[in-house]
Amino acid sequence: MSADNPQYKDRLFNFLFGSEENKAWTLSLYNAVNGSAYTDPSVIEITTIREVMYLGMHNDVSFLIADAMTLYEQQSTYNPNIPLRLLQYAGNLYEKFVKERKLNKYGSELLKLPVPKLVVFYNGRKDQPDEKMLYLSDSFPKGAESDIEVRVRMLNVNFGRNQELLNACKPLREYAWLVEEVRKNNTSHDETGMSSAIDKAINEMPNDFVIKPFLEAHRAEVKGMLLTEYNEAEQMELFKEDGRREGEENTLVNSVKKLMANMNWTMEQAMDALSIPKDQREKLEDKF
């Protein structure tokens, strides 16, 4: 996947649920989240954004099905700013939808658009409820009236949480099991230990798991994805801890710059990851 853009690194979640090869698993996930019962994977049209189309912009998984435009994100670190990110993704997806269908958004006829469905699948280590709603308006000044609202449904998909959801989608439950086993196996907490932990988890995965043949066939890619996610999470936690411990502007600026360089992120993405408040961002921007 993403061979057209070597700068983009797939995550295991979108490797499993966002590819043409695995549309049946995407459909199973959609049915589990929405309580629907679609049976034909061909009804799904994958629309995931890649940076080659929108400079500096990519999302995890998005697709059209029936009258819904579904955006799925996987997060191993809780990010309260995900409504803003998904608003930006949705805008680009609507633009793509209109252009591909040659629709006239300036015409007198009302356009029929798919309904946006925004979901975040959280599997970080810090405890979060099985389900919670995140709102764009939480970022606005308290009591302000806004003409725009974005609502994102966050689902905790750590193994042992949201049992009904995981049981309704076998590939999702197996993905959650894999992530949990890798964490258990990674006792040395370094890249070498992580690599061994991934191999052990795949090798010990029950043979009746539907994702096992796919993981074995793509073992090198899967290991690369999980190692990248592990390194990103470790770096972000270190940067956050530095910021909390020092609390100085120069430390935060250096942390933002490191994230931008190491993750190939924009300044805004790096500040989102570090949960830097809006009023503090304006002061820091002058230092770039």
Structure write-up:
The protein is α/β, with parallel strands linked by helices and 288 residues long. It has a domain at 12-191. 47% of the residues lie in helices and 12% in strands. It has helices at 12-17, 23-34, 82-100, 163-168, 170-185, 191-204, 212-217, 219-246, 249-263, 267-273, 278-284; strands spanning 45-46, 61-65, 68-75, 115-122, 131-135, 151-156. It has a six-stranded mixed sheet. The longest helix has 28 residues, at 219-246. The chain is globular and about 55 Å long. The two termini are 34 Å apart.
The major β-sheet equals:
6 strands, mixed
Strand order of the largest sheet: 1-2-3-4-6-5
Report the oligomer.
Answer: single chain
Gap between N and C termini = 34 Å
How would you spell out the order of helices and strands?
HHEEEHEEEHHHHHHHH
Tell me how many strands there are.
Answer: 6
Low-confidence stretches: 1-9, 52-58
What does the overall shape look like?
globular
Summarize the structure.
The chain has 288 residues and is α/β, with parallel strands linked by helices.
Labels describing this entry:
12% strand; 6-stranded mixed sheet; 6 strands; single chain; 288 residues
Q: What secondary-structure arrangement, pairings included, does this model have?
A:
Blueprint: H1 12-17, H2 23-34, E1 45-46, E2 61-65, E3 68-75, H3 82-100, E4 115-122, E5 131-135, E6 151-156, H4 163-168, H5 170-185, H6 191-204, H7 212-217, H8 219-246, H9 249-263, H10 267-273, H11 278-284
Parallel strand pairs: 3-4, 4-6
Antiparallel strand pairs: 1-2, 2-3, 5-6
